[in-house]
Each structure stands twice: as C-alpha cells, then as structure tokens.
Amino acid sequence: MFSNRMFNILVPIISVFLGLVAGAIIMLGFGYNPIRGYIALIDGAFGNAYFTGETIRRVTPYILTGLAVAFAFRAGLFNIGAEGQVIVGWLAAVWVGSSMEAPMIIHLPLAILAAAVAGGLWGFVPGILKAKLGVHEVIITIMMNYIALFLTNHLIRNVLTETKDTTDRVLESASLASNWIMEITSFSRLHWGLLIALAAAVIMWFLLEKTTTGYELRSVGYNRHASEYAGMKVGKNIVLAMVISGGFAGLAGAMEGLGTFGYMPTHSSFTNIGFDGIAVALLGGNAAFGTVIAAFLFGVLKEGSLNMPTEAGVPSELVEIVIALIIFFVASSYIIRWALLSLKKEGK
Amino acid sequence: MKMNVMMEDITGKMLGESSNEERIPDFHLAIFFVRSFKMSKKGVGFLENYVVEMLNIRKEFPGIVANNNINLQVKQGEIHALLGENGAGKSTLMNVLFGLYQPEKGEIKVKGKKVHITDPNVANELGIGMVHQHFMLVDTFSVTQNIILGSEPRKYGMIDIKRAEKEVMELSERYGLKVDPKAKIRDISVGMQQRVEILKTLYRGADVLILDEPTAVLTPQEIKELIAIMKSLIKEGISIILITHKLKEIMEVCDRCTVIRKGEGIGTVNVAESSPNELASLMVGREISFTTEKTPATPKDNILTIENLRVKDSRGVEMVKGLGLEVKAGEIVGIAGVDGNGQSELIEAITGLSKVESGKILLNDKDITNMSPRKITESGLSHIPQDRHKFGLVLDFPIGENMVLQTYYQKTFSKNGVLSFNRIYDHAKKLIKEYDVRTPSEYTKARALSGGNQQKAIIAREVDRSPDLIIAAQPTRGLDVGAIEFIHQKLIEERDKGRAVLLISFELDEIMNVSDRIAVMFDGNIVANVKPEEINEQELGLLMAGSKKVGGA
Description:
CATH architecture of the largest domain in chain B: 3-Layer(aba) Sandwich
CATH topology of the largest domain in chain B: Rossmann fold
Number of strands of chain A: 0
Strand content of chain B: 25-35%
Main location (chain A): membrane
Largest sheet of chain A: none
CATH topology of chain A: ABC transporter involved in vitamin B12 uptake, BtuC
Structural class of chain A: mainly alpha
Structural class of chain B: alpha/beta
Oligomer: heterodimer
Mean pLDDT of chain A: 90
Shape of chain B: globular
CATH architecture of chain A: Orthogonal Bundle
CATH class of chain A: Mainly Alpha
Number of domains of chain B: 3
Number of domains of chain A: 1
Protein name (chain A): ABC transporter permease
Order of helices and strands of chain A: HHHHHHHHHHHHHHHH
Radius of gyration of chain B: 25 Å
Helix content of chain B: 25-40%
CATH superfamily of the largest domain in chain B: P-loop containing nucleotide triphosphate hydrolases
Mean pLDDT of chain B: 83
CATH class of the largest domain in chain B: Alpha Beta
Number of helices of chain B: 19
Strand content of chain A: under 5%
Largest sheet of chain B: 6 strands, mixed
Pfam families (chain A): BPD_transp_2
Subcellular location (chain A): Cell membrane
Number of strands of chain B: 24
Low-confidence stretches of chain A: none
Keywords (chain A): Cell membrane, Membrane, Transmembrane, Transmembrane helix
C-alpha cells in the first residue's frame, strides 16, 4: 500500500503537520491564539505584493544552500561549510560586480561565476583533504566557515575599502535587481535570482540522475568500496562533489550580493543561510525538487514569522520553535514510518 | 540491527548494574546460577520432552510472509537441524524464538510452558542462547571479560575477575570447550572465538543453543573440533538448534532436521532415516545433483602469470611473500587455504585494489602490475568479490543499475556523459532472465534481493563481460545448494568456453569438486600444486595447515 516513494513524500508532509500542531500547542500553552498566529504567518508571507516578494527573495538563497548540502550528501559527504561558501561567494560576486566595468551580458555572468568559483574553492579544500589524507570533511568545513567569515571582513575593511564596514555597491551591469519586479511587488527586494536557483535545481537533478558523473557520485556516496572495485576514482569524486556543492552555496552568496543587498557588509556573525541549508536539504529528502519545496516552506515560515508579533502578538521566537520541531519530526522520521506501518497493519 | 539490540541490551545492563539501585540484574544473576546448578543435575533421562516448541508460527513483513505455518519441536538433548535455502525464513524463525520479532500467529512453548518472548532478555531467562554467524565480541577484551560482559560477578562493587576466570575455567572444562581465559579476543583463532561465544551463552545458563551457520568461518580441523564439542554438549543435557545449508554436517551430527521452503514449514525428518539427496530435494523442492558434472580440462596458453609477488596489507604487514602462480585458458585453478594466509591480499593485488610491493602480474602477457582497477578490468578481468555487500553491489542502487557498475561509461550505455537508462535496463532485463535472478523487477533495489540472487546478479554482470580471466572469491559463501549448483555450472561453462578461472574458497568440497588444479596457499605462498583426483580432503587439510609431509608439485 505504501511504496517507498509514498513514504518519502508522506514523511515530510506529516512532519510539517506535526510541527505545526506542536507549535499550536505551545502557542496555546503561552496563552496565544494559534489560529490568529498562523493566519498572521500566512498574511506575513503572502498578505500583499510586498510580503510575497520578500518571501520569494528569502527562498532564493535557501534553495541554493539546500542544493549544496543535498548534493554533497548524495555523494556521502556532509558539507557543513555551506555557510562559509555563501560568505566567500557573496564577496567574490560583489568584488567582481563593483570593481570592473563591462556590458551586462559579460559582467553579470562573470560576477555570478566568480561566486560559484569562490564557493567551489572553499569546498575544494575540505574535499582534497578528505580524498588525500582522510580528514573528516565536517571538521574542515566548520573551520573553513570561520576562515571565510573573518577573511571576508578583513578584505572588506582593508582591501576593498579603507576601513569601511560595507563594500561599494555593485554596478547596474552586474545587478540582479530589476525595477520592473520592484514595481510589481511594491518595492520589495525580490530579484531575478530565483530563476538562477531554479535552474540550479534542474542542473543538479540532471547531473545526479542522468549523467555518468552523477552515477559515479551516487555510487561513491552509497558504497565507496564497491565504487573502487568497479574502477571509479573515489578521491576524484569526493573532490568533485565538494567543489560542486561549494559552487551551489557560492551562488547563494551571489543572490545576496548581486540581488538582495547589492553590496556586502562586514558580518559580526554568520548569516545562517548556509546552516539553514542543512535543514532544507534534510526536509527535502536530499533531492533537487524536494529541496526547492522545502526551501519555499522555510522561506514562508521565516518571512511570515516577522508578521506574527505585530498582527497576533505571538513572539517570532515561537516560529523558530515550530521550525525546529518540524526538523525534529523529519529527523525522527523513523517514528512516523513506524506509525504508518502499524496503522497499515491494523487496517488489514 | 540484531547486533544493536544485543549491544544496547548488554551495555544497558552494565550501566544498570553499576549505578542503579534496582535489583533486577542481581535477580538475573541468581536465576543463572540456579539454572546452571539444575542443569548439572539433569541427566539424559527425559528424551521425549520437548524443550522448545514453536507451533504454527506465522511472521509477516510488509509485502511478504516470511514464516507461515512452521512447526519446530526440539527434544531435550538433541541436535536439531534447521534447513532451508537462503531467504527461506530460517533466520526470521530464530529471531522470533530469540525475541527479536513477534510472530503474528502461533505459540511458543519452552519446557512445556507457553511463553511470550518479547525481547532477547526473556529468551536468555528461558535458557535460550544464540551464537550468531558474525561474532559479537569485544576485540580488545580478554576471553573472560567477553564471557561475563553484562553479568559480571562482583565483590565490593567491583568486578571479581579472579572468580570470573575460575568460573570460566570450570565451564570450559565441563563442556570440553578449550579456551585461554586471559587471552585477548584479537589474538585467538576464529575457532576459539566461537568457543567463547558458546561459553558466553552457557555462562548465562542457556540450555538451548541456537548456532547460526557455525561452520561457515572454520577450517576443516576446526569443524571437527566443533562437532566434538556439540556432541559433548548434548551429553551434558544441552539441546542444540543448528542452522545450516551443509547437508554433510547435518548427516554427521544431527538427530532430526526441520526443513523450511519459501517460508513454509515442510516437515521434520529423522536424519538417520534420510539421505542428503532427500534433504536437498525437500529443501529446494526439486532434484539436485551433487557431483559437479564436468569433462577434463584442456588448458591452453597462460592467461594469468604471477611472478615473485609481494603485497602488504593495510597494517603494513607482508601477507603475500614472493608468490608465483599461473592460470591457463580453459582451466579452473582453485586456491585452497585457511583464511588469512594472504588470499585476500593476492586478489586485491591482481585486481588493482591493493598496491603491489614487488613482483609482476601479467594478464595475457600484458603487465598489469599496479594498474588502476578500471584499466585491469578493461584488460579482460572479471572479479566476483569475496564480500558481495561491501564490494560486489551498491545495495541502494536498483539491481538494473548494478548490472552496469563497470561499464556505465562505455558507448553502449551512455552518450556524451549522459546515461541511456533504456539501454541499461534492457541489458539488465536480459541478464536477469538469462541468469535466473529472481527479483520483482529490474528497478528493485539490490538490497531487497536474497543473498543467492544478489550473487547471481554479480555473476551475470561479471561473466557477461566475456573476460579472459574470472576471479571467483568464495563465490558460494552462504548460499544454498540450488544456487551453489548453478554457480558451479556457470564457472565450468566459462572454462569450457576457454576462459581462465581462478577460484578462491575456504570450502574444501568446492575446491575439490570444481577445480582442475589446486594450488595450496599457506603463509603468503603457494606451497603445493596438486590435482584434485590425486589427493583427499585430509591430506589437503594438512597441506593447508602448513605441513610439508605430502610432497609438493
């Protein structure tokens, strides 16, 4: 009755549902009205053109960092370094976008490419260390995050500017922003980046599922020994997976740098776009289209939650709790699977 | 899964004992001692009593019925065989008895009393002990520490290791299970590790032992010792359930035999009144030929030539020490030897998975020493690996995608780096049919197939590449007679087509029946080259143990 595919779709849906129910219970427990709370959430995400635009704007980098984590995961690697890769990608895009002049058809792709290359490079380091020396990628990627954070701050303050806290704005020719989109969304910060993110999802799907490279990556991810036995170069695949993963995360940085902000400020702490990507990938089942859907859900929750304090008096921290609960239920999907199975048995 | 449950159970107990106020562990301990006391008084008197009865057992898993209508009645003091093909449901039934699964229907009686075995602790308390095929021992602990793990004798809150060692010695002497209580597990032989596992269950007061494929990992000499041990155990009133595919062993030691086929209980026979042929046909549901039919080999040119090969293992210890070997087209060379004498390293060196320190490997006169696995595969080598789960298959890939594990990048299956799934699955469908791989479809994950069908799929893939040399490492390990027959036939067919076959096996029967020439491997070298018709198992066993009495080539 329940095939595997059904499970893979049902489990996240039920997890989300349970997360929302648990969130409602918590709201009730603190004396808030959960229905008003959730209505405020929906309003905050889609209530008017501006909110809708901002929601989609927020979804865009989530898609890309989700893809980054999912891609590495499919090759058996845990890329916790998406955060650092976002940051270096952001800086690279802004650097190219603000410091050179070229026609848009060259300038914009070049800036985007720079972000992907920077992110890829940030993924290459843990990849090569894992492949050659067997160092665990989790440790290296975590450390690379800090290197990225402080290195970019240093570069912004001392190289790109003279002791300023933000870079110059990127030129029109390298910007993803569009007046037309701004107008139809009541001047939200929505930009063309969504198209890049969706294209990235298609590319990831095609690469993993349809090509020989993807076949090798998945094979290495599932069983390193059998892959080696079959003549695949395991080390090469590990490095490749980390580079592509880092590239996706780097693109997420470009979305912020060329789209949302148009510049890069120094950061006192992480952006969390990369870390949230881990949850997005998990919720999306590490598949390209699942990740897109999960990123939308995340974006809606995060953006909509901003409206909850004003419209329903519910503190936005509660939304963070709901998101955490959803992830909890996905991570403990075993329980849901088990419950579904026993339900099925009783139904007989 | 099974192991996890066990480990959790054991560690749980340990923690419980050191910190908890509850008395449950002590209570366990008391029961163990009472039982072992009772046990020693028990004679061989009441032979007609059933110690374990499983009646009309039915166990379902999503989509399949693993056990249906199975009856198993074990008498006091007998060795009772549980026989069935791979995937017939033997392990499921034993897991039901051991409390890891709950049956949907049926009842279990232990010593005449109806019981509900809800978890392995209950099974332990009822005196049921299980020795798993893969040992569950802590490598760096001593024999005694492993045996008492989870029910340690204590003095002033500390483990009383002296008393434990004494108890282990007593048990070991009483049942003739020779062990060194102070030795570390990693330093002792596989045979002794198995005796430790048996002692572990006896220490916990088991009087019904489940032995899961106990001889799969043993040398012929060790098998003899185990058989002697089983016989002395039943003299002491212990009952044994022996899970096995090996008809010879059943004939030798078992009193009665219960046969399962495709999850259904077929019946129980008295071994003395039966024959291997009858048991085999009961098990598979058709006639089985035991002697592998083959014509004499007609060896031609050298396909594989190995000269003075030296290989180190992952720890840097030299395992292959100046080995030389030749395999000709149209012959099957069997490498006989006890596990751990360099066979694995030899295979890994030939297939390019391990680095060669020195020496030469020639395939069709072409030097393949230290080439990459892919280059070697393309030079005409196929490899049926020893560990099919670790090396042979990507278990989470559909079986169809596993069929092109080495060839996916070639023109037939991909174009400009894009896979042609139509062609891949057409190819897979063809192989599945040709090699009778039983799978619901070519899209089914390899994990879902039974061991025999997984192995058939690997053989289909490897043989279909039309290689010059086939390396078959333990190709029938853990398989039932039907699958073994099929695989042996395939290897001989390939030989007759003029291919060279190198067979590595720890099963003497297999080596004797299938090989045209036997190379005995001991301590990293080929110590003898013999013809199977000129040697008996006893002599071969001695050669494998390093004895030089029966001359060389």
